[in-house]
């Protein structure tokens, strides 16, 4: 593969990452499966629910950091389970203490326990508070182009619109709103939620997304480690296809080779 294809890092908050696939750490059978799936995915950024996962706050229990060490992975604490801006900010402060002052966080403020749709009013409020405290905020949000622009203007370092409800596996349901967000953004746009299989990840990347974050699609598969590899390949293929530029869609077929000037 040529150097120009390989030299295509994802840049977030001044840091570069080779992998454009971000993975979660929940829903696996055990920490060993988490480790093996993360390695198969080639992920460098792994997101962790601070309220559900032990990062050392419970010294008597196994820590995720034993299998996914911070010197090898960028641990991205998230505020899953928070329903108010204040709860989300408190959770991020705790994460910063547990991770030696690291400022990169994934903000999510939920508005509904059944669908896990974001509360966009509380999300905007929390984003303003966190940016004001020096956090580097990657933010989960709805697929609203206006809201995405507002979050970028606040100072979020990445905007992460859902493609479908969290854990639904429905795939990319909103490609036109995603395109509107992508085409008007100057920060990375990372699809977060809704991916079910490799083709969904490829479509997200072909649309021009900078990356894809997923958990359930891998952890919930019959063979999570094999699915993690499939997702790694799909994200890479989708990115290459986006950069290459697809042919126009047509209503009719045309010959693969021109016939003008052919003999006979």
SSE layout and pairings?
Layout: H1 3-6, E1 10-12, E2 15-17, E3 21-24, H2 31-41, E4 45-49, E5 74-78, H3 85-98, E6 104-107, H4 120-132, E7 136-141, H5 145-154, E8 158-161, H6 175-183, E9 190-192, H7 198-207, E10 211-214, H8 216-219, H9 224-244
Parallel strand pairs: 3-4, 3-10, 4-5, 6-7, 7-8, 9-10
Antiparallel strand pairs: 1-2
Helix pairs in contact: 2-9, 3-4, 4-5, 5-6, 7-9
Q: Write down the overall mean pLDDT.
A: 91
Largest sheet composition: 5 strands, parallel
The Cα radius of gyration reads 20 Å
Order of helices and strands: HEEEHEEHEHEHEHEHEHH
Count of DSSP E strands? 10
Biggest sheet, spatial arrangement of strands: 5-4-3-10-9
How many helix segments? 9
- How many angstroms does the end-to-end distance come to? 41 Å
**Shape by Cα distribution:** globular
Helix-strand makeup class: alpha/beta
Multimeric state: single chain
In terms of per-residue confidence, which ranges show pLDDT below 50 for 5 or more consecutive residues? none
Report the β-strand fraction as a percent range: 15-25%
Estimate percent helicity.
25-40%
């Amino acid at each position: 593969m040529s150097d120009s294809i390989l030299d295509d890092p994802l840049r977030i908050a001044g840091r570069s990452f080779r992998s454009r696939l971000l993975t979660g750490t929940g829903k696996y059978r055990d920490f060993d499966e988490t480790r093996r799936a993360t390695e198969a995915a080639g992920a460098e950024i792994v997101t962790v629910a601070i309220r559900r996962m032990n990062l050392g706050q419970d010294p008597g229990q196994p820590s995720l950091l034993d299998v996914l060490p911070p010197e090898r992975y960028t641990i991205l604490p998230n505020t899953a389970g928070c329903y108010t801006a204040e709860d989300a900010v408190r959770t991020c402060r705790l994460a910063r203490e547990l991770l030696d002052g690291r400022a990169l966080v994934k903000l999510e403020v939920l508005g509904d326990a059944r669908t896990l749709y974001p509360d966009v009013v509380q999300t905007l409020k929390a984003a303003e508070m966190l940016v004001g405290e020096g956090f580097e905020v990657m933010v989960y949000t709805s697929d609203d182009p206006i809201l995405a622009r507002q979050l970028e203007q606040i100072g979020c370092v990445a905007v992460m619109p859902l493609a479908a409800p969290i854990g639904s596996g429905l795939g990319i349901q909103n490609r036109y709103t995603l395109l509107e967000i992508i085409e008007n953004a100057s920060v990375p746009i990372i699809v977060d939620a809704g991916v079910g299989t490799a083709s969904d990840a490829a479509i997200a990347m072909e649309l021009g997304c900078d990356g894809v974050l997923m958990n359930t699609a891998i952890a919930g598969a019959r063979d999570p480690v094999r699915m993690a590899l499939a997702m790694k390949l799909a994200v890479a293929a989708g990115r290459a296809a986006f950069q290459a530029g697809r042919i126009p869609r047509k209503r009719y077929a045309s010959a693969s080779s021109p016939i003008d000037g052919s003999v006979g």
